[in-house]
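Journal club prep — side note

Before the paper discussion, L.F. wants everyone to see what a predicted structure for a comparable chain looks like in token form. Sequence:
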Amino acid sequence: MNKQLYLFSPLSFLFFLVACGGENNDTSDQTSTTVDQTSTTVQNSGGTTKTGQKSRINNFVDWATYRGDNEGSAYSSLSQITTENVQLLEEVWTYDVRKLVGPGMESNPIIIKGVLYFADPELNLIALDAATGEELWLFEPSKHDPRGDDFPAGIQRAEVYWEDENGENARIFHLAKDVIFAVNPDDGTLIESFGKGGHIDLWENHVWPAHLVQNKLSNNSPPATYKNFLIVDSNVFENREEPPGNVRAFDTLTGEFKWRFHTIPLEGQPGYETTEWEENMNYGGANSWGGFVVDEERGWVFGATGAMTGGIHGNGGARPGKNLYSNSVIALDATTGELQWHFQTMHHDIWDYDIAPAPMLATITKEDGIEQDVVVQTGKQGKFFVFDRDTGESLFPIVEKPVPTDAVPGEVPYPTQPWPLKPDPLVRTSFYESDLTDITPESHASALEKFKKLKAGPMYTPPSIEGTIVQPGIHGGNEWGGPAFDPETNISYVNVNDFPFILTTVPMQPDQFSDMSDLQRGSTIYNAQCAACHGGERQGATGLPLDNLAFSADALKEIITKGRNAMPAFQYFEDDELDYLVVFLQSEPGDGSTADIDLSDESLTWSGGEGELAWSTSTPQYVAALDYFTDHMGYHAIKPPWGKLIAIDVAKGDILWSIPLGEYPGLVEMGIRHTGVENFGGMAVTKGGVIFIGATEDSRFRAFDKTNGELLWEFEMAAPGFSSPSTYEIDGRQYVAIVAGGGGGRYRSPVTGPLGTRLHVFALPASEVQ
């Protein structure tokens, strides 16, 4: 019997990427139908076509929900701005948040009754007049923190507006880390009848005791609502010390806990048999961190999950098997949490290919004129899955493709992976010498020098001790912004990253290696918990470099325990462990090397944690050090394009067009154009024929012709718009809004843009509005 406790690795502390119920609520736990190795289906009484009118909140006109509507289509039926006049757009108002702090802003503004709501990087909820930008009120969660602590900076991708069926009891659900507040949309005051004086604490109503969950989960993406159910996701890391990312539901009026779905099945539940559990290990993760979409007719909520423990910050040797329900699309009854069907998009994740965006719901018209409701799922793998919404069956053939299995000792990669035959992959799915960058001879030479020292090959080549080029990389494919869908044309639009990472497995020191100096102990802690984000030599990777820190020991301890910018607060070190780490961080690069490990020695053991969260295993344990694979200038070491915008006919599975998305100014100055750039965020597609998208590292906000990808207009902002735009109408005038908060250290690439403070709002000149 495996332990159903999951630990939080405290030393992922400088990396901020990218759950159950109380004892008396056991009857609310999930019930499921029989699960086979790939998917489960349940028939329901709902039809296959949409009927009736959308609600005042869930429609194609008002951008009242994250990604535009409950289906996540990012589509607007507004057409005042067209391909013919979009070049006339002007900035009509802006709003600057109070502080320039990391990790930036990713908020997709929602607009309700002429009021625009969004979150700043201090996690304040701001209400503005959507036509003028006048601040109406500001809600500061730090003044209402149930634990008496200020909230550090953080990410919140959208607010959630809810009202009952009579249009009453309206509230904004505002997320701040691990607390959900119910805020009056009219004046920004707490609705004290909700939860405990206006909030619910996500430490509570979890299968773990609250003291074990504290500071170990948060929410970046908004919950979903269906009737009086608030369905909540969670953001957790994927270490050996993490809680499970179970889906939970609460009452929208009272905050009462309603149900949970175990994304890591308990013993006796369907899916449990897909993992070989170790008795003394902890298993967590598998969280639906990208949010949810809702089918109101069926009463279903759809989400997509990430990796189980050991996605990148550990290894999968202690969890052989497919590992349901990780990396899966899940369809749940929104009122009970009962599983309707699922599909696992990859088995046994050891690459951090967790599904970043929520699913998207669409209704397509087939060639015979019959409409079909479908679920579209994109993600980091760069694949485009299309499922029947009722059954979970794929519209296009999916094969189990054999993949490489040569891995480090103790790791057992799954021998096959799901591979849809249509549409074609949206990114390159292998890396060989012929793929090396050729933007300049010097770039090619520097990339080739690195390449010769690394392992490479087809997609799903396992991580290695020498380092493996992983293509697509962990920032690859379609990220959390998700796709868009035009219901009039069957066409979906997807922005993707198409470049590799280097993924290196670093052996953890076994229990038998106890005779080490303080410096070596600190190095061991760093390699086990920090190297994944900050590089094996502290040179920086997805996290900032730590090789020349100008901080005192006390200052470093304060940063570690209290957090700063993109880094959350970590308070789990024993004093001596914190001392060891600080000694190492203040040492010269290269110091503190640890002893060699013979991983074939079967007498070795690994362990960690304390008390209820202690774990131990004889399976070799690793952490994964990540880095961009770049040339000598810091640009991606694969041939361009590195970022793309793609149009896909969902009904036919055909790619209609693909264009590079963005340019790096430094390369433009060298005459190197149309490379595409790293991008994070979504888009808005309109009936007027326009795709609006920021998302790119070059800090541009662009408008494209949705029929062919032609660039029609662009605006240079002071920081990247790593967010999704909104479009809405006030008094007959169409507006487009985007938050430009940059990404700071959160999305560190060698050429990333700065942090920003501004919300930009555009419209046609008043003289053009009729």
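L.F.'s comment for the group: Confidence is low (pLDDT under 50) at residues 4-28, 31-53. Keep this in mind when we get to the figures.
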